[in-house]
Amino acid sequence: MSGPGRFGLRERLAARSRASATPAPSTELSSSPLPSQERSLESSSPAAGYVVRDTRVPRADGIPTGAPAATPPPKPIPGRGRPCPAAAALPGPASLADDLAAVAPVPRAGLCRQTPAVLLDLETTGLSRDAGCVPFLVGLAWHDSSDAIVVRQWTLQSLSAEAAMLADVARCLEAHTRAGAAIVTFNGASFDLPLLRLRWVRTRVVRPGAASAVDRVPHFDLLHPARRMWKGRGPDCRLVTLERLLLSVERQGDVPGAEIPMWYERWLRAPHDPAATAALRRIERHNRLDLLSLLGLAGQLGARLRAPGDAEDAVRAAEHHLRRERLDQALAVVGPSLTRLGLASPEASASPDSDSRGGPSPLARGVARRIVLVAAEVHRRLGEHERAAALWAWVCDQHVGEPEAHDRLAKFLEHRQRDPAAALAVAAASADPCARRLARLRRKLGAGVSPPLASALRGVRGVAAAGANRGGAAGRTNLDSLV
Amino acid sequence: MIEQIPSFSRARTLLPGAGKGRENALAGTGEAEVLLSPVAPTELARSGSTEARLDAAEQRVLACEAVDVVHVQRTGARSGSFGDWPDQLDPRLLAALNERIGPRPYAHQARALASVFAGRDVVLSTSTASGKSLCFQVPVLDAVLHDDRSRALMMFPTKALARDQVESMRSLAAALPGGTTVGVATYDGDTPPDQRRAARARAHAVATNPDMLHRGVLPHHERWAEFLSGLRYIVLDELHVYRGLFGSHVANVLRRLWRVCAHYGSAPQVIACSATIGNPDGLAAGLCPFVPARADEPLGADDDPDTRARFALVDEDTAPAGAKTFIVANPRVVDETTGVRRDYLKVTRAISTIMMQSGVTTLAFCRTRKAVELLTRYLREEKTRTDSGGLAGAVGPKSKHGTDDGSPKAGSRPPLRLVGGATSGRTASTASAGSAERAIRGYRGGYLPERRREVEQALREGEAQLVASTNALELGMDIGGVDAVVLSGYPGTRAATMQRSGRAGRRGRPSLSVLVMSSAPLDQFVAGETGFLFERAPELARIDPDNPEILVPHLRCAAHELPFGGDAVGLPGLDAAEQDAALAYVAEQGGLLREEVDGHARYHAIGPSPAQEVDLRGGIEENFTVLSPAGDVLAQVDFKDAPLYLHEGAIYAIEGRPHEVRALDWDGRKANVRAVAADYYTEAISKTRVRVVDPSSELEPQAHTVGSGVGYAQVLRHVPGFKKIRLHTHENIGFGPINLPDLELQTTAAFWGLRTDAVTELTQPQARAAATLAAAHAMHHVAAMTMMCDVGDLGHAVLPGHPGAWGMAIGATRGAGALAEMDASAVPHVVLYDQAPGGAGLSVQAFTLGAAFLRRVEAVVVGCGCKTGCPTCMGPQSDAAESYGVERAHVAAVLRALASEPPGPSEAPV
User: Fold this and answer.
1) Cβ neighbours of residue B797 under 8 Å, at least 6 residues apart?
2) B112/chain A closest Cα distance in angstroms
């Protein structure tokens, strides 16, 4: 049917080869055994097509004892940071469990106290997640019983061994997750885990449609919480930036991520090429550092989500908790800042400042506004509308025109207090008034007159006081401290 | 100065008459209506049945002065015959079919369904509107009703067809009793990401196209694992489209699909539908080499055991059909000495007018997009004129602007009012212009989908009386019935001729087709031997999936999807030794990673998918967008056409309405246009430079050596300017410059050199060059016929010296520059090259046929019926005959000389 029958495919290819203007590349692929790595650390023979390497990092000194010989013991270099995270910056198992619990709710049964989590990071031959994107290096890290961190790395030496290697990875992951460990990644929700799932299906480790070792397991992707905490406070939110910012790590001789696929392919084509071999060692080191930094990041994140270092942290931590409807945590992290503003509720503050209006605020105005707004939102969701109203009133008073505060307070006055006059005064003073609300309030008000903003806000004070009294039990608000 | 550039000739072939003194003289008097006998149109249009109107139209075509009717083919009416729905059909589906289709399917449908349910892979090849779609819809729905995990992948050549079929299938699925849902979804470049996820996860049947399968599905097959592991049917609609280079690519895409299915453990059954071609089962077997041979099937006497046993073929059409009349009309010769005929586009216009006046709904198939625009515009003007009072509104071709020649600026010209130029009844004529716009429509690629749908709907609902279309309407879009089809020029194959004329006469009504021949060699050959058209079987559709230029990139894609070697599934249709050789070759070239595992080679590809760089239809550049002043997208233009159609000052027509290009943003791939009332259209001038690099004949690339061989060609197209050509008269009224990047094509080529002393009767260099030009034209056309490819798949050029050095292609015959080039052409060389970027092995194959090929060309030239050379045998640059005394005998002598030229020192490669 097809083609000129005279010529077989081989003859036609030969002709094409003759006619080809481009000479064949000089690199040749070797079929000889792959070079051995540091054998003391390997647990698979090269014949398996992949190498498994364990590196133990005792938390006592933070120096990976199993580091490749080429790596000198890391020392902090003045002004340039450390080559890898300090031991003290790496949380222990119990602390990690708490850190993760601060990031997101953990399962009712809780995380395993000895090995609360397995950290996971892949190095791949591309970022596209199409069929040619091979996870050629899988790194997992966990705490072992002796309070050291084990970093286990699978490196693919022969592409044909991908199925065997990924099956081994799946077994290791399952062993830990079945014992109650969560999975921790950086951007794993959109890259590492979906890619692993696809590769497991492709290599028939997992049946199409069946659950894999990373399904139905608690997963903490720290990228988004980290963005919430640090976006805009550094050049970007990549892991290498965060580790520099938070852990004072300055990597030395690191492989830029974008070069990794190129180097790996070069190594595959020429395993004896010294440059490629060295690059592969550096890629493995890069992956170990990523895992250690990820652990350090989890510690930083957990610490700041539980006890923010400054007001900016407090706002961001509260917003993070608010997103997850963890209102008590949100309230807890804004408490100290509210106290400094003199806005704390009685049970949270022992010494209410009776008048903070004129005096120099200990917090920058912008941060103060955001923190009060977050606190108000938390109270609103708790159903403590009067308390929320008092906080909005504070913002309206301090930042006249602030749209969110005016908007919220106007709604409160209109719908909860049924006071269209005051609501109109508040709504109209917004920098971005809602025309429909104004029209509706004017209609409701009819011939009535809306009071000046100041008196409307004073009215809120009265209302809040009444609400607090109605609520009895000393109330949650210290009204005099509010406005 | 103006050159005939065969390789990028689209702009020039739009109007064969343009720019040539002799034909212009004709054009001046060539108004359509002078060709017609006067008949009161409205009277006829309203009277009588379809039959009566068709009869009247036929009589008027037969009596038309503009044409010689060379053949009338009549086919009688046929009543349908019926069969039964298969027994094992799910009762819910049977109920739906009884409600939607009726108690009995056509006999051919019943036969096809029986074969499918017996587990055979089936190909149907019956006429348009014979209910082919039902033959795959029923098994797909039935499979889902039996097992909810069953999946079907349906491939259509275009997005529009896929969308149509999804709607049709959904409506059948909706007729199933409540509670049963069958998900049918499209998956193509227009599908938004969330719907893509839904289609992968939930749809039972997915409609896509080969390009999407190649780029969007296979490289991500892991995401489709669940779908593919349940794949029960592969549906291939419009199978005949998958031929030639495109078909060879699609065959490899299907090989890859099969491989991935095998990986996930499925072995789907194939249901294919084709228009009438000579070898539907052979084509299906070629496209699906994985379909197993059925040793147990009894073979007919003339069955090819290799192909027929693979697919069950259903090709007897049992749907009722009306009587068909097919008229072959050759435009009359107007100059006996040169054999020049009336311009076929004008004749098309005259025939279309007859159809309109007779009140029959008509599809006019044109060969080019610009022809569609001109025909639409001319017919609308004519209808407006006749509707608003006969002659009063005639826009005389020379009546108004005859003195305004040569103005280069469009803006400086007084706009010509299109409607009712001098009539008194302006309102009436405006209204009739509106009705003309509704009654006469254009349809072609490049229009936005919404516009195309609107035209399709206007045809279905009877609002459109005539649609001028390119082959875009050839495929199975649902357009209801038309009464008549006018073919402007021979479509190139018997199969396409039948397919297009089959658009007429749906639902058992009678129909009329008129084929108007152009002066192209192939057309005149067919006009001379109408038996070629009616007595021979439709062409075979050939594919060559093992063409290394096509196979190698797909091997890389396939290796990227799943590794080769070891226990991995191979590419079906390649035996193991061939596959190993091919893989070793690609690995050697650096395209694959080779590993040795237990003594066996394994091949991998990693990194980004090579599928992104492999285009199934040739050309991967982004289209240009045509924008209105308000920023609305009006149309799309192919990348390579943009310099010709979208340069600043170009007139770009949409359904005949002229738009002037105000600004072209080359890097942004967009052009801003505004509607104007221009009385001219534009035609870009293109010049081509060609060089054949690294010719395998290893000749010294010196201008005075002679040789022949194959190699890699670089083709540069430069567009220096454009002409403005007045409507109707087709006279040249001005020039403008174009300053756009040159387009470069890297491809494969063959070349033949002509020795100085080879043809003793041709001593003048110009005469030699002119004769060689004519020979090259004929070689191009005959090569296309021989290789079963489109004329546009190949290009040709004549270079003044050895092609190893850059040479300006010698063009047509005017201007001092062209003359100088011809003077300099000591040893003219014919270069035949592939138009597909990277080459497709076509010109190389022509070369390997050697002298036999050139003898065949010579036979076509000598066999031409004209006296001293005509566009048929000498190509469109027939001025050559006059200027340099080129005669047919000279062209034949050149061809003989080329044939006797020994190939270069090395053995001619394949």
Assistant:
1) B5, B6, B7, B688, B690, B715, B776, B809, B810, B830, B831, B833
2) 23
Can you say whether the dihedral through the CA atoms of B158, B162, B167, B169 is positive or negative?
Answer: positive
Decide if B845 and A4 are in contact by the 8 Å CB cutoff: yes
Both tokens assigned to B200? 């992968």
Spatial strand order of the sheet with B122-125 comes to: B184-186, B205-208, B151-155, B231-236, B269-274, B122-125, B312-314
User: How many C-beta atoms lie closer than 10 Å to residue B837's C-beta?
Assistant: 16
Residue at B213: amino acid letter: L
Determine the Cα–Cα distance for residues A249 and A293; give it in Å rounded to an integer.
Answer: 9
- pTM for this predicted structure: 0.77
Edge to edge, what strands does the sheet with B657-665 contain?
A: B633-637, B624-627, B670-675, B657-665, B651-654
Residue located via tokens 């070898």? B279
B615: three-class secondary structure by DSSP: coil
Check if A5 contacts B (Cβ < 8 Å): no
Q: Which of residues 257-276 of A touch B (CB under 8 A)?
A: 261, 265, 268-269
The answer to ipTM > 0.85 is no
Are residues B461 and B467 in contact, defined by beta-carbon separation less than 8 angstroms? no
A111 contacts A117 by C-beta, under 8 angstroms: yes
Rounded to an integer, what distance in angstroms lies between the CA atom of residue B839 and that of residue B345? 33
Q: Chain A residue closest to B540 (CA)?
A: A1
Minimal CA separation from B706 to chain A, in Å: 20
Percent residues over pLDDT 70 in chain A: 78
Select from B734, B767, B746, B627 the least CA-distant residue to B691.
B746
Q: What angle do CA B272, B277, B278 make, to 5 degrees?
A: 115
* Distance of alpha carbon A328 from alpha carbon A325, whole angstroms: 9
Chain B residues close to A209, C-beta within 8 Å: 225-226, 229
Angstroms from B819 CA to nearest CA on chain A: 35
Beta-carbon separation of A2 and B595 below 8 A = no
> CA A280, A282, A286, A287 torsion: positive or negative?
positive
d(CA A422, CA A455): 8
Rounded CA separation B399/B28 (Å): 11
**B496 vs B500: CA distance, rounded Å:** 6
Q: What residues of chain A lie within 8 A of the CB of B229, using their CB?
A: 208-209
Query: Cα A386 from chain centroid?
Result: 34
Number of C-beta neighbours around residue B401 at 10 A: 17
Q: Quote helix, strand, coil % in chain A, to nearest 5.
A: 50, 10, 40
User: Are A16 and B549 in contact (CB < 8 Å)?
Assistant: yes
| Residue B464 φ then ψ, to 5° | -85, 130
Which chain B residues contact residue A156 at CB under 8 A? none
Residues of B in contact with A270 (CB under 8 A): none
What is the C-alpha separation between B208 and B185, in angstroms, rounded?
Answer: 9
Q: Which pLDDT tens digit goes with each residue over B676-711?
A: 988 898 988 888 888 887 665 554 445 456 778 888
Successive 10-residue mean pLDDT values, chain A, 483 residues: 50 63 34 30 66 83 41 50 77 88 81 88 86 92 86 93 94 91 93 94 90 90 90 82 84 84 91 90 91 92 85 84 84 79 57 41 73 85 84 82 84 82 82 83 79 77 56 38 37
Residue B895 has a CB neighbour count (10 Å cut-off) of 32
Q: Are B61 and B354 in contact (CB under 8 A)?
A: yes
Minimal Cβ distance to A2: which of B286, B595, B597: B286
Gap between the Cα atoms of B110 and B117, Å rounded: 10
CB contact under 8 A, B582 and A9: yes
